[in-house]
Amino acid sequence: MKLVEWVDEKGWKRRALVRDNDDLQAAMSGRGISQDPPDIESMNWLDIKLDLHNALVDSGLFSIDDVQRQQNALQAIVLRVFKRHLLALYKR
Prior knowledge:
Elements: E1 2-7, E2 13-18, H1 24-28, E3 33-34, H2 45-58, H3 64-69, H4 73-91
Antiparallel strand pairs: 1-2, 2-3
Helix pairs in contact: 2-4
């Protein structure tokens, strides 16, 4: 088996395992074993937006001044919210 990579017609990077004698076209046509991360399109983006909004409110980040006063708060909130939802996607 060999790993092949390509960019699909929509710009998404893809990876698949194909037999050693198969070419890239085999992978592109779906005959390989996908090695892609979980499909982020299946994430519930409304829940992510809700969680992000509520975390910003809970942290008191309402303006750029608030963000500048709390140097690491914005990054921590974004990381916490997205990480939780992304890990849940991997566990499915």
